[in-house]
């Protein structure tokens, strides 16, 4: 079932949680709402669920207006960050709850409920825990039960609020790929909230990047990572280096370095911000006749197959660190050591002319 | 559970340095947070003397005085028609006041813990009001409102309704005095539990009543019971407020505490103490129940690893 959100706004006192947000969730897709805390992503999810009412705007389920529908009639499955399992009930009772509270007319028989619950527990691979209580389970197990409980009522959409936020790194990764596989099997329209960009890029079909109650960009993980729409998305998704530059008629200057930027051919004497991903910085020992920036290595960190270099440009008085990532092979080839002088050159950069300085993190 | 913090900061600062006693080649170390033996013993002794003087002796004397003139006098005192009527009235008042406050307490705690609204702090303060107002004043308020010279007095008299110097007044005064017990017990408990479980239940399609009965109530049942027991003890033992509104009509508007006072003022000590012993028994039963509930609650939490 598709979900459509039309110009939702929501205020909490003086704080604007949602600012005229519109969004389309396609049927059967897994969508991530990504953003820093306070960006409105959880509020948006809760408004879709009906746990929160927006001040203005509409929520449509499958083209039908659901704005004034009560939570319990929306047929959504909701998974909470802290699981919210019923502590006084066994795991079986937890999963069966949604079926047991149905009015007699719509309630399946006892045997049917039993079969369905056991099937779901089997699906989340925890059928052997049916008689335990939530406190006897680990965090990862609890979250899988919470998911089984949400699925028990056969919801039309599944909403997950930071589902892996309270788990440790390893369990988080496991559950992440498990959720992806589960979604591929069930094809239920799902929206999940996260502040972890890696999680969003890895799991979702499409990512919605949010900031300060607005949507900054919507796109596939590749789109938002490779073609960020604006500096916020650039800085939020992955590590990035920021250079201040001048821009004039299709050419940009960062210090002494001159770069061709044909897409900005119209620009006349502009100040621009240039973003370069760490893995798109080339490191050389010599200048090779080409234009490059001189820099000094201040720190070397080797992580698995990748070596991270922290550099400082030679004539940078404020000593802003520049991060570069090179392969271990390349690192051995260059035989770099701390304190050495090298030359760096961006392989690819994105320019944002005239972006207000106040909106930048650094 | 929180370890009791060592008292007397000045002593503790002296004792933070470890004192060692060289003795037969062995070194006995004193824990840094422990006071020396003489301090501990004198503090415990002091507490014991205090408890004995102010609690045990009066308690025992109640039973001693009650039974001094023999079992027959005791039985006669508590089977006297006026005493029986006082006992019945006390039970009736508690039977009305406790359920009323149960409902109010749950409703107030639910509203305060699970919702944000204007005037929330005012409500919390109002709930505490009966604790801060002298019971006699509480009684007087009702006399002022419902009494013959009060605001509603003439209207009530016209319609032949009696509140002051009758059972309704006693019930009202008791309810007022016991309002905070259950709400106060539940508010912090419900606040700590948050609203996620209730939200989960509603999303799963549960109605408001189902959510309350299956999710909220089981989570607060021990606190609720605890509050109800304290509320009951106070409802049965209340003197000040009830004394003002009751009118002390024997066999009709006398509760047990009032009956004790009347008997005492008539120099009928044996009977006064006999009825008082019943109230003392009630206190002991309440204490026992309270301890039992605390114990069960702890077991319950331990079992759930929520220590």
Give me the secondary-structure topology.
The complex is a heterodimer of chains A (362) and B (307).
Chain A: E1 3-12, E2 15-25, E3 30-34, H1 41-49, E4 56-61, E5 64-65, E6 76-79, H2 91-100, H3 110-123, H4 139-152, E7 157-161, H5 169-186, E8 189-194, H6 197-203, E9 206-211, E10 214-219, H7 221-226, H8 231-236, E11 241-248, E12 251-254, E13 257-260, E14 270-276, E15 281-284, E16 293-303, E17 306-313, E18 321-327, H9 328-334, E19 341-346, E20 350-353
Parallel strand pairs in A: 3-8, 3-9, 6-7, 7-8
Antiparallel strand pairs in A: 1-2, 1-4, 4-5, 9-10, 11-12, 11-14, 12-13, 14-20, 15-19, 16-17, 16-19, 17-18
Helix pairs in contact in A: 2-3, 2-4, 3-4
Chain B: H1 9-15, E1 20-23, E2 26-29, H2 37-67, H3 71-79, H4 81-114, H5 120-132, H6 135-146, H7 153-158, H8 167-193, H9 196-203, H10 208-237, H11 240-246, H12 256-265, H13 269-303
CATH hierarchy, class of the largest domain in chain A = Alpha Beta
Q: Whole-number radius of gyration of chain B?
A: 25 Å
Strand content of chain B: under 5%
Identify the quaternary structure here: heterodimer
How many separate domains of chain A? 2
Largest sheet of chain B: 2 strands, antiparallel
Q: Which percent range describes the beta-strand content of chain A?
A: 25-35%
Global structural class of chain A: alpha+beta
Report the major sheet of chain A: 6 strands, mixed
The CATH topology of the largest domain in chain A, please?
Rossmann fold
Give the termini separation of chain A. Answer: 42 Å
Our measurement of the CA-to-CA distance between the termini of chain B, rounded to an integer number of angstroms, reads 7 Å
Radius of gyration of chain A: 25 Å
Shape of chain A: elongated
